[in-house]
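A further point concerns the way the authors explain their paired sequence and structure data. Showing the layout once, in full, would remove most of the difficulty. For illustration, here is how one protein appears when written out as sequence plus structure tokens:
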Amino acid sequence: MFFFIVFGLGASFGWETGYAGNFARDFGPRVLSYLVGYGNVFAAGTYFFWIPLVAPLTGCFLGALIYDLFIYRGKDSPIVRLWGGLSAAGRKSGGVHSSV
């Protein structure tokens, strides 16, 4: 099923974006095209080049933050140490593994 999703996205947006679902497949050819002299290749596709760069990094950060706030219950997390996490609201002892 995952194959069909990736293939569908590539087939739909591939002509317009150069199949930029992966930053490594998009940025390298753009740099080479710019160095060869094709002009401003970064403006092609209405500046789409920054989406494969920013979206995965933002998704990783938000995914880690959501995991740390809602799922992880250890005490060695910087988020849990700073704010106590969402599980600390209404509880006097910390963490799931406490003996209280």
User: Anything to note?
Assistant: Residues 84 and 94 are 8 Å apart (CA to CA). Residues 2-83 form one domain. The mean pLDDT is 75. The chain has one domain: 2-83.
